[in-house]
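Box 3.1 A note on notation
Throughout this textbook, protein chains are presented in two layers. The first layer is the amino acid sequence; the second is a token string describing backbone geometry. Keep the layers aligned when reading.
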Amino acid sequence: MFRLAFRSLRRRTGSFVATFIAVFVGAMIVMACGGLMETAIRANVPAQRLAAAPIVVAGDQSYKLTSGEDSTTLVERVPVSSDLVRTIAAVPGVARAVPEVSFPATTLRGDQPVAPDAQGHSWTSAVLAPYHLAAGTAPTRSDQVVLDSGLAARTGVSIGQHVRILVRGEPRQFTVSGIGAAPGVKQSAIFFAPAEATTLAKSIDAIGVLLRPHADIAAVKKAIARPGVVALTGPDRGVAEYPDVRRGASDLIVLAAVFGGMAAAVTLFVIVSTLSLAARHRQRELALLRTIGMTPRQLRWMVRCEALVVAILAAALAIVPAGAFGHWLFDQLANHGVLPTVVTYYHGWIPLLTGLGVALLASFGAAVVAGHRAAKTRPVEALVEAGVQRHWVSPLRVLLAIAFIGGGFALAIVTMTVLSGPIAASTAGPAVLCWAIGLALLGPGLTKVATAVLQWPLRFLTGQGGRLAALNVRARAIPMAAAVMPLMLASSIATANIYMQTTTVHEMDRAYTHSVRADAVLTGATGLSDQLLAQVRRTPGVSAAGAYVASTGVIDYPHASQDSDGWHLQGVSGSAAEATMSLPVTAGRLANLTGNTVALPVSEAHKLHRGIGDQITMRLGDRVAVNLRIVALFTAKSGYETILLPVDLLAAHTTDGMPTQILLRASPQAISALPVSQWPGVRVADRAALLADYDTGQQTGAWVNYLLVGMIVAYTVIAVANTLIAATTRRRREFALQRLTGATRALVLRMMGLESLLVTIVGLALGTVVTMATLGPFCWSLRGSLLPSGPLWIYLVVIGSAALLTFAATLVPGWVALRTRPVEAAAAD
């Protein structure tokens, strides 16, 4: 059978190429998404600053929620206890346990920070890189530092000179006692005397474990295991240097799973559609094989072997570009902040097998359906049906259509009645595919109805070309559905996902704008000090000023259902909260946010059965549990709720340990008179810039979704062009017969153009139905309206591009086919 399959494919280059492209691109996309998921699951970061330590002990950022089986990844660095250093040092096989501390610090050149991402450390931990003194001596006094060689060169200082360092928001002067060097370490480092570093650091970040000769790493790792900490070895050690890797990896796993699943579903749909179209074009050939003695079983296996040959070849060749394409996708995501760029990209055998499996499964499944139908039909009936295809309904097809459309209705109900806020996208996304596949299964029938209605205005308005197109469309309604359905899928996926993003960003901007009413914001390169806040408050014309910091946390008690990502927490100054935050307070006062207190949204307070004066227990971003007394309740937009805490409390449990912004209400004159010139690295932005900064963060998340959705849309666009070109090329004999009976080349091209117009209208109409069925419930959940937020030109660009693609993929191959003499074309087919 495989020999016959090879011979058959060699004679049908057009169908072979069309199927090959569909399988090749689909397998490549699935493999690339698999590579992203493998990278996120591994989340390996090469150790740099801790590279000399075979074992690194760090705080466990994974925390199991008390309200269920879900767990969350804490966003802040989880500190380790100083007592643990002594405990680990006493473990057999351990030569030395070295505590690692870090805090924001950067050198200044003039008043400008040289390296805003630089970190301060204790010289004690320099051995963990390992750093060595290229010149000078180690810092022993509180006013001495060692700079890494790169930072010293950029700052323009040498041994013995004074250098200004911005540390924890305050500029201070130090003497450069030495220059350090460590090959392979990219992050800029400033080393302080051990006692000074202990004062500046809020806690111990990690412990580097140096082993004795011939010590068993596995045994030592097991011996130092403790609840709340993790012992990292090998490529996992870098996570201790970049604590945000785990959170980013969790987000990337979700992204890769969602878009990989969507890519796999679209790949299945496209491959099945392409192979089914190829099988319909071969009905006459398959019927002739039946008439010369081929059994139904032989026919079925011939079709399956052909599909497997193409699928294996295409999927195998897709392995080569899949790794490069996946790496490119990862680079784009890393450059936009989803993961640190230092994470190692992986593309192992599991993503490759997944892509191969999807391609082979889709191809074999489509071949089974096509071969079964061809083998079941009697030869004479198949020859008649090959001329005009009329049969498309089957019980299985109808049942599947009902199942997918029912799934679309179920997801719509869940989206409208259960979910709120951005989380509604978790059901709206799959709804696109449910609606699209359900309508695609009914596509031939819907196409027949639509063309039957549209043929009359077509005949009336376009003359002879329109009448000829109407007759063709009526006779070829079922084959025409093969072109309509991919067009519907491409337009609906593109429109629905783009408008979901624009609506989500718009509503999040509205929620943020509603909650913050500061006139200006101050930001600092290494945090903002209390002295700066005091000076700002004393500035004439400043009516209110308060520090601000953001983090996440979870509610430990009372138990209540909560998102696995935790609660968005905002730390504010109670004295300025009512002036800088615009939240409708229903009970208590925001001014009472001092000490261990909290302000809750009314909806969450009701779920917890708590009110003013009651207590809750929260687990903050660094794993520390705090008991909080409720001092205020406020209303918040559903799906965009946040919890307010005193800024001093929340900032102490963040990685940097300091406020990151100062919000203030002030006149324009007061804003221009703020004493920021005395504080290097401090920047003043007005309200517009504040909102723009927030919007930039939202646009980054939207960009990521645009990239991955665009990848899938590009594949469906290839499928649309593939289908239309194959269908048009197959009609060479039909065009030749039309010309032999008196039709001119111009008339045939006009007929094809009008057919393309019908395909475009029907495909885009069905795509619009799918889009509205998806967006309606989603937008109602987000904003109480059935219409999305976003410019109309997005929809116009999508339908315009789809129309242009349809006309180009039909008329260009049609024009090429018409260049052959009619007699030769009729005889060739």
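The chain is about 55% helix and 15% strand. The mean pLDDT is 81.
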